[in-house]
Amino acid sequence: MQIGPAALPITHETDSHQYPFVDATPGLLNFPFLTYFSLFGVRGLKAHVNAPRLVTYHEGGVLARESFNTSLPSLVEYGVRYPNASNSDPAKLHLSFPNVQRLAIRADEAVLLSFFTSLANQPHSLPALQTISAGGRCDRTCQIAEGVQEKIESLILVRNEACAVNVVPYFETVPPFRIPIFFGLVSVLSVKWSCALLTHILDTEFYSLKTFRSQVLASAHSPPKL
Asked: Which tens digits make up the pLDDT trace of 5-60?
């Protein structure tokens, strides 16, 4: 399931402001069979989503400061686009996604270094982690300087040796990416309509999530792979 703001382009500017805020969500929204969730540009919704079987979750960086209402041990893949240093702390990710195996992060080099330094200093956070897909800001060609890549590799080595694991980093600069981050650029679906339909799903036993997903995707452009 992909949810994003209506007619709001994904740009550096909208990543930091102009986000609609969901302030009328009717309590907890339960999705017992939801396995894929992509959320961009809708603040206030994440804390209301209860998805105990969620496997893959991708989000815009500003939403990383928000939390789900409970830990998600089912989650295997997490992707975040343009977080800042304060909301990309491995310890915080561990509380939300303790069993995550694949992690994709697209960020400025300073944020990437902050994340990997914290990961090396907290080697027992995210114990199931196997693969990290790291990329620079894609509005800046996704490149990561060679010196920064070398520093990240040395930090990963510190963690691997401390925990006797083999986390493998991949520097994603040219598509196809090993772990792409997907977002749907919604052009018709409004945030209020999204919340109304989510409520309808919960209240109507004959309305399937498959139908909802097809309607969302029908109103979206092809999602970018970041």
From this structure: 443 344 443 444 444 555 555 678 899 999 999 988 788 888 889 999 999 999 99
Contacts of 215 (CB under 8 A, 6+ apart): 189, 197
Tally of CA atoms within 13 A in the half-sphere of 3 that contains its CB = 25
**Per-residue pLDDT averaged across 97-105, rounded?**
97
What are the tokens at 148? Answer: 């920064």
> What domains lie within the chain, and their CATH numbers?
2-218 (3.80.10)
- Residues with Cβ within 8 Å of 187's Cβ and at least 6 positions away in sequence, in order, are 6, 7, 219, 220, 221
Rounded to whole angstroms, the Cα distance separating 148 from 156 reads 12
Q: Which residues contact 60 (CB under 8 A, 6 or more apart)?
A: 10, 15, 39, 40, 41, 80, 81, 82, 183
Instruction: Write the pLDDT tens digit of every residue in 83-93.
Output: 998 888 999 99
Return the half-sphere exposure (C-beta side, CA atoms, 13 A cut-off) of residue 77: 15
pLDDT at residue number 16? 43
Phi, psi (degrees; rounded to nearest 5) at 160: -60, -40
